[in-house]
Every structure is written in structure tokens, then in C-alpha cells.
Amino acid sequence: MTLTAPAIGGETLAQERRIVTSIPGPRSIELMERKKQAVPTAVGTTMPVFAQAAGGGVVVDVDGNSFIDLGSGIAVTGVGNSARRVVEAVQAQVAAFTHTCFMITPYDSYVEVAEALNRLTPGDHEKRTALFNSGAEAVENAIKVARSHTKKQAVVAFDHAYHGRTNLTMALTAKSMPYKSGFGPFASEIYRAPLSYPFRDGGLSGADAAARAIQLIEKQIGADNLAAIIIEPIQGEGGFIVPADGFLPALVEWARANDVVFIADEVQTGFARTGAMFASEHEGIVPDLVVTAKGIAGGLPLSAVTGRAEIMESTHAGGLGGTYGGNPLACAAALAAIETYEEDNLVERAASIGELITGRFRERQAHDARIGDVRGRGAMIAVEFVKPGTTEPDTALTQAVAKAAHAEGVIVLTCGTFGNVIRFLPPLTIDDTLLNEGIDVVLAALDAQASTENTQEARA
User: Fold this and answer.
1) What pLDDT sits at residue 452?
2) What pLDDT sits at residue 6?
């Protein structure tokens, strides 16, 4: 079935999977050769194609192939690419002015975004918000604020964490390759605690997993030295790990009792992605500081730190900022994106997307031992692949399924410490018909891989 996206700029984009060339097509091959001569190989790409247009639930490449988008640019385009309100807001703003630097000549849209985040983030306490450019930059500033407030230095992050690619955020990030290897030395006073990972914890409860982490923190670091705990309410790059119930509330309670700032990194989980505006809401936790980015501005670069007024105000005047932080184009986009999340009921849409995806894969899991776990919340769902009859990660299978899906016109992303997880992050604007077709392609790729394995075993 061919659907159409809302009109953008007087044009419509067909909502269909369409393969008209081999993947990659000739134009993409030409551009990839140019990339090799102009861009370092360290800047990798998941897909071997170059985008020309995108919207709704599809990305169209320069050769005319149309791909079902189950990645959203890593959870960025929750409102869809070229969302009408976002496009119109940015067009109006770029015609007015592109930059003044908020720290020199401020503008009202920055204040409006801050007000919106103060209203939307968990908790009804008085808040303040500072705007930045990227998730990593916001994480760095959250750590700065926590250290300034507590007058302590140590920071605890968790196993499987991902917080960015800058020096400090690489130290916070758990996985070496490709994020950290060869880039040290890293920032000091960063420590790591065990996460609650239900699929691999042997049934450990959330409360017991928290007690394990807290004991390590108290014995190896000491609350008197600890400025902050930082954690993703659902791990992102680490594999979409949802901690067991009670894990996060226990950490928050301990942090409150010990003058430790609790930072929720909601860069990937924020803005309706998990079927709540913020993932912290699922367990009723109220972080001291919330870090946001990705889905905040419909694809434009913007991030934020929002937190308790007394904590955010503890930093000296001039201590926070940046030339482009909260630039007017991104602020206009953010206000339009937030309006879209709220007015178009995208929180509810994310929840229904999650039900569809988990239902499809749990049905398959019932008779496919290669699917070890199906987990996540809302439109942030992961499938973890294992060797049948074990919990041993099957990275090769994961890569093969993803590659086959790409070749058949579906954008999917892998993740996980062991590289054995396929994650599903569709735009919240995707139609159920298109979403089901994308899942069909992934399941067919899984079937094809089983046939290949059986053939190889027979030959052996």
C-alpha cells in the first residue's frame, strides 16, 4: 500500500518501500567514493546510500530508492523529518535572523524553550534550564553544575552506559570500541557501577541490584566524595536495557540522602520516545538534573540541562554558555517540535508503536530460540540475539540480519555492549502499515539467515 506524507513545501513524499536499483545505487556509489577522498574513514556510515529527501516514515536516496525508516537518525526525528510545524518555524526564523549569540543579545525563543522544559520535565519544583548544542555538551555541563553545587568531584556512571564522545563523556561511556579506544587519557574522578540488566542478572530484583551498586559506591568511592550519579533511565547504545522495577527509585533515594546530584541522561529516551514525555516518569522518579537533546528540535542541533533551581543557580555568573548554545533556528524548531508532540498526541502514538513491535517479536520469540530478549518501552524497542539455548551473544547473526534488511529497503540500527541487539526507533509519525512492512522485512531476513545456517550445517 502506498501512503502519502503531509504536504511540505507543496510536495508530498510517498510513504512506501521502493527499491529501483541495487543497494547502493550508482549515484550513492559515486558519492561514497567522494566521501573516501574528503572525509576520514573514522566517520563511518550505517547505510551505504546518500539521502535526498525524508518525511513521515521514509528516507529516499539519491538513486530514488525509498527506505522504511526504523532509526529516526538515532531517535532524533520523533516528529518526522521535515515536520510541517518545524519547517515553517525554521523558515520564519531564518528570514528574521540566524544568530546573535544569546549571551550577547538574547532572544525570546531561548526563554520559551527553557520555560517549556521547566514545565515538561519531571517534578513540580522550581527549575532552571540552560541550552547547548549536543547531548555530550549538555552532559558535560550537567557534571559541571553538580560539582559546583556539591563542591565534590567524583562521578558515577554505569555499566553499558553511553554519554558521548568528548573527553569527559568518553570517560563516562562504558564501551571501548568504537567510542574510546586509543583516545585516552580520559577525565579523572569517573567511576563505574553495575547496572540492573534483567536478561543477564539471573533474576536479581531492582532493589537488590541497587543495593549492589550502592555498596560498591560506598566502599570504593564514598558518598562524601561523590558529586553525581548519572544514568540513562533506559540504556541507549548499551542495548536498550530497562532496569528492573525499583532500581532507579532506590538510587534516587540514596542520592537524596547523601547530597549526591542524580542526573538522568534522557538524550535518547526523552520527548515521547518511550510512551511518556520522559522515561523517568515510568518509575515516578524526579531527577535533580535532566539532560535532553536528540528529539528536542526535530533534527536541528539543540540540547539542554534542566534542573532544580538551587542546583542550577549554584554556578557563578558566566560559568555556563557557548557561542551557539540555544541558537535561534534550533529554538524555533524545538518550540514547534514540542507543540507537535503535545498537539498530535505522540506520547500515545509511541506507546501504540511499542505494543505493535513487541507483539510481533515476542510472537516470533516463542518459537525462535535465537531471540533471547525483547525489551524496551514505547517506540524504543530492542531485540537481543543469542546462540540458541544460551545467553551467549550472537553478534554475527545480528549484523547479518541488519545488513539483509538494509539491502531490502529498511533502515535498522544495531547496538549493545556485545553488538548483538537490533534497536527499533521509528519516527512517531510512521503509519502502522509501513511499520508492519518494515518488521516483515526484518523477520524475513531472520528466516533467511536460519536457512543459510541450516545449509551450512548440512554441508558440514
Assistant:
1) 65
2) 45
Q: Distance of CA 401 to CAs 43, 410, 452, Å?
A: 23, 11, 12
CA distance 193 to 304: 25
Q: What average pLDDT does range 390-419 have in this prediction?
A: 97
Residue type for position 312: M
Amino acid at 419: G
**Dihedral Cα 99, 103, 109, 111, nearest 10 deg:** 170
Rounded distance between C-alpha atoms, residue 378 and residue 143, angstroms? 28
**What type of residue is 43?**
V
The owner of cell 540552560 is 130
Half-sphere CA count of 168, side-chain side, radius 13 A = 16
3-state secondary structure at position 417: coil
Residue 266's CB: how many other CB atoms inside 10 A?
A: 32
178 has pLDDT over 90 = yes
Asked whether 165 and 193 are in contact (CB, 8 A), the reply is no
pTM reported for the whole predicted model: 0.95
Per the DSSP assignment, residues forming a β-bridge with 230 are 263
Reported as a pLDDT band with limits 50, 70 and 90, residue 8 is very low
- For the chain, the distance separating the N- and C-terminal CA atoms, rounded to the nearest angstrom, is 42
Q: Beta-carbon neighbour count of residue 342 at 10 Å? A: 14
Q: Is the peptide bond before 40 cis (omega within 30 degrees of 0)?
A: no
The stretch 369-397 carries a mean pLDDT of 97
Give, in order, the Cα–Cα distances in Å from 82 to each of 43, 334, 348, 387. 25, 13, 21, 41
Q: How far is CA 202 from CA 198, 208, 454, in A?
A: 7, 12, 31
CB 1 within 8 A of CB 433: yes
Secondary structure class of 3 (helix, strand, coil): strand
The cell for 6 is 503531509
> Do the strands 51-55 and 58-61 form a parallel or antiparallel pair, or are they unpaired?
antiparallel
Mean local confidence (pLDDT), 22-41: 97
Return the SS3 of 19: coil
Three-class SS state of 147? helix
**Cα radius of gyration rounded to whole Å, the chain:** 22
In the chain, what are the domains? 3-82+346-459 (3.90.1150.10), 85-343 (3.40.640.10)
CB atoms within 10 A of CB 139: 28
The per-residue pLDDT of the chain, averaged, comes to 95
Which residue is it, cell 565534590? Answer: 152
Q: What are φ and ψ of residue 36, in 5° steps?
A: -60, -30
Secondary structure, 3-state, 358-398: HHHHHHHHCCCCCEEEEEEECCEEEEEEECCCCCCECHHHH
